[in-house]
Amino acid sequence: MALTDEAIVKIKGMITSGELGPGDRLPKEADLAARLGLSRNSLREAVKALTLVNVLDVRHGDGTYVSSLDSAHLLDALNFMVDLHRDDSVLQFFEVRRLLEPGVAALAATRISPEQVTELRLLTSDLAPDASVEELVANDLRFHRGIAEATGNQVVCSLLDGISGATQRARIWRGVTQAGAVERTLAEHAAILDAIEIRDAEAARAWMTAHIAGVETWLRKAS
After folding, report:
1. Nearest C-alpha neighbor of 139 from the set 94, 183, 89, 80
2. Side-chain half-sphere of 162: how many Cα atoms within 13 Å?
3. Which fold has domain 3-66?
4. Where do the domains of the chain lie?
5. Burial bucket for residue 73 (CB in 10 Å: 0-12, 13-18, 19+)
6. I need a labelling partner for 123 at 20 to 30 A (CA). Which of 13, 54, 67, 177 fits?
7. What is the CA radius of gyration of the chain?
8. What is the architecture, at CATH level 2, of domain 72-222?
């Protein structure tokens, strides 16, 4: 194991064991290096790496702290990776959405509040048939985000935020090239929401699967 990797593992161990918690300050560099049996250079490189993935927060002139470790903050690294994806990998992101989002819709059906149903219902009626492609995609993103929020699971929300961004261009492309994209999207959204509103988790799962798979199938044929 490289020395920097060893340092990362040891710092991670301090966090997972509960020795260091969110917001805690790490010991001084010299003290921590001696305690972990590492060189100061290896420790410094490990701190840099853990800072990049938002596990640690270096405050110049103050010290190094464990971050809040909340899911949205930690998953920023995923969003960064998604931003670097190539166009030929977008189908892989659709596959991930098809694996995740039907389960999210099913969970939302068991947890959604009446207020959240109303908000989503407004989204399904807020788009005119002659809406622009940009308006369609923005509405679609808000709809899927709203369903994720209805689960009450912040990890799910953060994951889908990153993945949805990677498929945004494909949805714009579909909206430009496929006739009836607005009407089809709204009809599918309404069917998903109908199932969620009556708390039919399996119907919500099925409708969401069809919705995601429809775009994925179109993209495979168009590629």
Report:
1. 183
2. 22
3. Arc Repressor Mutant, subunit A (1.10.10)
4. 3-66, 72-222
5. middle
6. 177
7. 22
8. Up-down Bundle (1.20)
> Which tokens go with 33?
């290096």
- Written as six digits, the tokens of 114 are 């009446």
Query: How many C-alpha atoms does 35 have within 13 Å on its Cβ side?
Result: 10
* Other Cβ atoms closer than 10 A to 197: 17
| Beta-carbon contacts of residue 82 (< 8 Å; ≥ 6 apart) | 93, 162, 163, 165, 166
pLDDT tens, the chain, 223 aa long:
588 888 999 999 999 999 999 999 999 999 999 999 989 999 999 999 898 888 899 998 889 999 888 766 666 666 655 555 555 567 788 888 899 999 999 999 999 999 999 999 999 888 777 778 788 888 888 999 999 999 999 889 888 887 876 666 566 656 555 667 778 888 999 999 999 999 999 999 999 999 988 878 877 776 6
| Assigned token pair, 5 | 């990797």
SS (H, E, C) the chain: CCHHHHHHHHHHHHHHCCCCCCCCECCCHHHHHHHHCCCHHHHHHHHHHHHHCCCEEEECCCEEEECCCCHHHHCHHHHHHHHCCCHHHHHHHHHHHHHHHHHHHHHHHHHCCHHHHHHHHHHHHCCCCCCCHHHHHHHHHHHHHHHHHHCCCHHHHHHHHHHHHHCHHHHHHHHHHCCCHHHHHHHHHHHHHHHHHCCCHHHHHHHHHHHHHHHHHHHHHHC
Strand-pairing partners, residue 59, are 63
